[in-house]
Amino acid sequence: MGVRLVVVDDHRLLAEALATALQLRGHRVLAVGTPAAVAADLVVGRRPEVCLLGVAAPGGPGAFDGLRRIRRECPGVAVIVLGPVGELRGVAGAFAAGAAGYVPSDERIEVVERAIGRARAGEAAVAVDVLRGAFDQLLRPAVEPDDEAARLLRLLTRREVQVLARIADGEDTAAIAAGMRIAASTARTHVQRVLMKLGARTRLEAAAVAARTGLLERMADG
């Protein structure tokens, strides 16, 4: 009996090829999309049994935001991540976000199909060696590179975060004041406070600190 599927991948051709192969095997593909970030919208609108989520960079920031949303809004949908296994932290991240399985993106269609069947049945759809390596990293995580970013964000007010984002975009005091609709003197005060809290002597150095610590990405996620 065919499975109702949504197929999403960061690469359009891969998504379409996988969807076609699964349709030829009797499955019902409700939607095909790209990039992986659209997965949640497609799943919420169509309610498949299984979502195949192809992620090119599972270790990247926000890679599994859509997966987390699916788990919140459609907990009955099993999500199988298709991705590389060279970076096991990405595999671990997929399971931490609620994935029902993880299959190497270069696996044969027969393996993907078996994973679909196991996920629909509520079983773990992942090879034992991949699962062992992923959970080993979950149990013994390395220090996250954004620890310093979290500390710095706690030091900055909401207004100062906005100012820092504009500094990173290369805006001068006049542009910051105009963009935020505040007086130039207020903008200068905010800039000085940002520099002080980041321990930076110049705007360029503040932007470098924000980039080095991952603070820019954290600001975008906030």
TrEMBL record:
Top-level taxon in the UniProt lineage: Bacteria
Alphabetic keyword roster: DNA-binding, Transcription, Transcription regulation
Pfam families reported for this sequence: GerE, Response_reg
GO biological process: phosphorelay signal transduction system; regulation of DNA-templated transcription
Start and end residues of each HTH luxR-type domain: 149-214
CDD domains in the cross-refs: LuxR_C_like
Domain Response regulatory: residue ranges: 4-120
MF terms (GO), sorted A to Z: DNA binding
The keyword Transcription appears for this protein: yes
Coiled-coil blocks: none
Keyword Heme: no
Name of protein: Transcriptional regulator
